[in-house]
Amino acid sequence: MPAGLQGLAGRARSSSHRTRSRQEQGSMSGSNRRINGERLWDSLMQMAQIGATPKGGVRRLALSAEDRMGRDRLAALGRAAGYAVRTDAIGNMFLRREGQTPDRKPVLFGSHLDSQPSGGKFDGALGVMAGLEVLRALDEHGIVTEAPVELVNWTDEEGSRFGRGLLGSGVWAGVNGLEETLALRDHAGISVAEALDGIAGDAPAEAFPADSYFELHIEQGPILEAENADIGIVTGAQAQIWWDVTVTGQDAHAGTTPPSVRKDALLCAARIIDLVDRMMRARGEAGRGTVGELHVLPNSRNVIPGEVRFTVEFRHPDDAEIARIAAQFPREAGFIARDCDVSLALEAVLRLASRPFDPSCVALVAEAAARHGYAAREIVSGAGHDAIYVARKMPVAMIFVPCLNGLSHNEAESITKAQAEAGTQVLFDAVLARAGIAG
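The line above is the sequence of N-carbamoyl-L-amino acid hydrolase; the predicted structure tokens follow.
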């Protein structure tokens, strides 16, 4: 693990007493104010009806009709409560509640409403609806914050439609250009620009001055549940590298083409997929390697496949290990393609360094969990989240809650009402401590 992630937890602990004295008024005076768990759960279940699947999950692909419905619902709830709602040129939504000092930098919090093709109710949606509950709870308790606070719904975090995860936050943080992102197309040939028609707003798709960002999310893994922890105090996120892979051989008749002259693209792809698995397992329990998407052409029973397109991703908490993977995978995949007498094209589509989160924001999460008696542990995020890109622009922290059997990106994804409430309470306290209560 890189030094940044190794040392972050200790720095967060050592800075907690300084953070408490600096934020004492906002943090301590807000400790007896509770969010409304029933209202939170009701809002989650209502959002889950949009794009609901027969197996109990959701299908709200980014910028689809269902995503539009979710966005419209969030905007309507925000406007009805009196929050200013704006949308930027890439579709990121912001719901703003003013503070006593409007020119102070706002405290941001949120997540995403888009889902995987067969996703669960809580991946992303928990963070957005919890953020709405934070705003509602502030209203209910009559709290005027010193700084403005803003709920964010980021566009296309999942990357399952246009092939680029963290799409909206990536443009907002300046990682990817707006024009190149608008030109991306889904498998039906629809561009991001076309899908944004009627959604994109007038606000520039770029970072604006903000104090900090907090994101609540389900863990999407088994660690918190296995250790009976209520809260994950996320100290940072691991490194990632993604490729789009195209293997090109030659279509040929399955019954008449002997082995010596075959140029089987699928055979090569299968051997590369096995390479991904072997490289992952060689790195022990910290290794991650996945082929999640596969397209075989012409996809006919009696035709030797002439082209295969698929995705490859690796993840690891150590940047140096990702660098070794970045060198090893193209080299060894190239050897396999040569042996199969086919051509290979690799396009690197994502490279994320490990990202330590801000010690002072992490400390606020830890303090909030301790204040309410929640069992908590520090954890490094194995998944990619919008917070990773936002952290390039401001201090960031994340909060995890357990999910049943660690299952996510699955219609059976599940959390309890109590878990949702605990995570949202920690989010509320952390946001309030950072924004401050007006005197």
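Note on the example: The first helix runs from residue 3 to 29. The two ends are 43 Å apart (CA to CA).
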